[in-house]
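Email to the structure team, subject: endopeptidase La model.

Hi all, the expression group asked for a predicted structure before they design truncation constructs. Nothing fancy, just the tokens so they can compare against earlier work. One-line instruction: predict endopeptidase La, return tokens.
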Amino acid sequence: MNRRILTLVVALVPILAFGVLLAAVTVPFVSLGPGPIFNTLGDFDGKPVVQIEGTETEPTSGQLNMTTVSQRDALTLGQALTLWLSGREQLLPRDLVYPPEKTRDDIDKANQAEFKNSEDSAAFAALGFLDYPKAVTVETVSDDGPAKDKLQPGDAIDGVNGTPVATVEAFTSLLEHTKPGDVIVVDYRRKNEAPGTTNITLGANDDRDYGFLGVGVRDAPWAPFTVDFNLANIGGPSAGLIFSLAVIDKLTPGELNDGRVVAGSGTIAGDGKVGSIGGITHKLAAAHDAGATVFLVPADNCAEARTAKHDGMQLVKVDDLGSAVDALETLSAGGEPPHC
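Reply from the structure team: attached below.
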């Protein structure tokens, strides 16, 4: 073989080997970066993202964008290097995102449960802000419990055996005076329907010696109409704040965002308290790319948010749902809301 060709072949071998490593070898890292955004005042897959039925809603404009973080797993060495060099992606050890003691399915189910809880809390927080009165509200109905096909999630329980119940404490106190096999009469209100009454034969449960109804209840603001959120395959609790604002915007006159493109993130409790979230810098980048001029930042995330490039996008600090509404109204009036 010609010496020059041999030298070339020898030189190419490590290059080819490195190329194979880049393309075939996976690394124990997960990439986090800017994810898709969803306008909660718009539609998704042909349905309103925030769908309210059973009452009149107000027209809206502009955008209230829910922001997300993209996540890539099973990266090759080449992909990991490319994403890291982009400057927009963050590489984390995989064990931090997917703890080895949990399966991927366990983590996905937990994220979906958090998202569903955030939807419920968002609706409760919005209705509370709008001064809808509290009721003993059914959250869950056991598939094999006595209340199955009798009560539904979202029902308000008004009385048991003719005795009014205004709180979960009062409701539980009445049940504690029953025994398995007793028949109770439950007065309830159902959304978009007339009030009803149903007879339920109580069952037995190992965790109590009194009658078992098979429902989970909470004290929560109750309205006679339905609020549904039509987003799928989104996990985690951080959409709560924006969901609540969208509900308020659709149920009140005027435009909460004054026609602007507003984005944000934040968990929300049923009482309206806004909590911190992860991936704020990635969410800011996604919002900026989508043309947002205002980003609602949970107060506990302000320090981290200030470290991100936001190119003139206003970082508005919020502590709770009321302060978020006040901030948007201040902006609409030409004032200066609290900034990070």
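The first strand starts at residue 29 and ends at 34. Confidence is low (pLDDT under 50) at residues 8-13, 16-23. Ping us if the truncation boundaries need rechecking.
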